[in-house]
Design a protein that fits this description.
It contains 13 helices and eleven strands. It is of the alpha/beta class and 321 residues long. Strand 1, helix 2 and strand 2 form a beta-alpha-beta unit.
Length: 321
């Protein structure tokens, strides 16, 4: 806790810790100091925001989805936990909510009979026979969405993508591992092997792709949509603790900023040119929660958005010569 000896009320953002330490450190310090883990919680919010936007295209509800994750590390299980929170917020029991989230790791489908599961995987172990790999899991479970957080390049094979297209009219395909060299599939592969019917987002940027005369503009599920707004609201309002509810409202806020024009192009995120607007709106949303929950040290301003906007860093450089 040396930070508290130097700074009055520090905000600590954990990032790039291995699984062994990431969950342990977040669990230990989240109630002791103002902190969050961007790999776990930031990734979760941006992925859930993308899912909300994708469901605006499919005209479906979150509670009607079955999501299959490839990768059960920080990012994957972080997304799963926030999806569970979103579902329980809709009125589902935690047991029912977890039945909507399935995981595949390097040893196959995560099921209760396996004895090799680490602590963060156990809540997602399902009552189901063992399934050895991802393609077999897709065929057995028939998910509406697949989310890649595995760091395995090409893991969403043509067979996986084709199977998703056979199961769903508009399959949701999120290949969130980055950089591009580690992406589970490219945008071109996703659109090609689903005959242009999928809703795709990548963790890395992909160029627009023309399939049979329709140009698809893939969204990029980048944490930059989330953590600047979390940081702005926290620092400006003196938020004492960052709670899970803030990441849920951040995801909803992000989704609401996706326009109908964005959706018409197949993009489930706003363009990055709007990042300051996104950050300001997320900062406002989490600040309102902080004041409602008694978690803010700064007196509540009459106009939170104006208050926050005045405290945004503006990287303009004066020309002196």
């Amino acid at each position: 806790m040396s930070c508290h000896e130097v700074f009055v009320s520090p905000l600590i953002q954990f990032e790039d810790f291995g699984n062994r330490n990431a969950f342990r450190l977040l669990k230990k310090y989240r109630s002791l100091t103002c902190s969050f883990n961007d790999d776990i919680q930031g990734t979760a919010a941006v992925a859930l925001g993308g899912l909300y936007a994708a469901l605006r295209i499919t005209k479906q509800k979150l509670e009607g989805q079955k999501i299959l994750f490839l990768g059960a590390g920080e990012a994957g299980t972080g997304i799963g936990e926030l999806v569970v929170s979103a579902l329980t917020d809709l009125g589902l029991s935690e047991i029912e909510a977890r039945k909507r989230c399935w995981f595949v790791d390097s040893k196959g489908l995560i099921v209760k009979e396996r004895e090799d599961l680490s602590e963060h995987k156990l809540p997602f172990a399902q009552n189901h026979p063992r399934v050895p790999d991802f393609l077999s899991s897709v065929k057995a479970l028939k998910p509406t969405a697949i989310i890649g957080a595995s760091g395995q390049s090409g893991a969403f094979t043509p067979e996986v993508l084709q199977a998703m297209a056979q199961i769903n009219t508009m399959p949701i395909i999120f290949a969130l591992s980055n950089p591009t060299s580690m992406s589970e599939c490219t945008a071109e592969e996703a659109y090609t092997h689903t005959r242009g019917r999928c809703i795709f987002a990548g963790g890395s940027p992909f160029p627009p792709f023309d399939f049979n005369g329709r140009v698809h503009v893939p969204g990029q599920g980048n944490n930059v949509y989330i953590f600047p707004g979390i940081g702005l609201g926290t620092v400006a309002c003196g938020i004492k603790h960052i709670i899970d509810e803030m990441f849920l409202v951040a995801a909803k806020t992000l989704s609401a900023l996706v326009t109908e024009a964005d959706l018409a192009k197949g993009s489930v995120y706003p363009p990055l040119t709007r990042i300051r607007e996104v950050s300001l709106n997320i900062a406002q949303a989490i600040s309102e929660i902080a004041y409602a929950r008694g978690l803010a040290l700064t007196p509540e301003p009459s106009d939170i958005k104006t208050f926050l906007k005045a405290r945004m860093y503006d990287p303009r450089y004066e020309i002196y010569v």
